[in-house]
Amino acid sequence: MHKPHSLFLLCAALPFVASCSTVLSPEESPPLDEQLAQLGYRQGSEVGKVPRLAIDGWRLVDSRHMILGAGQEQSYLSVLGKDCYRLDNQDVATTATTAGWLSPLDKFYGMQFGNIHDDCTIKRMYRLERLQAMQ
Hints:
Helix content: 10-25%
Number of strands: 9
Strand content: 35-45%
Structural class: alpha+beta
Largest sheet: 7 strands, antiparallel
Shape: globular
Distance between the termini: 63 Å
Number of helices: 2
């Protein structure tokens, strides 16, 4: 027998489940350099822009730091202008860029249930250097 109230409860709960996040703020997280080291990186020099085509993946370190191009030969650290907890739960994170380059003041948009989005402005960007494996 079909129970319409069960389906209604499931649909009503989806926005609350989607908004749950395990992303910590920088204050709640270990120091950034330790987190990057655990991921095999060290923060390098600041960069003014990154070719958007060079970035095909991303990973949040904490609510204000995102690794762009994670797993690629060259990766970058993006420092976000505010806490962006909702980007972690998104299937899609799109960017607003200028002429194919990603640079400070561009934004990431996390597409959420019901077309609500969280926009997160890039404050600074850094090249990430790969740590050499211990031998």
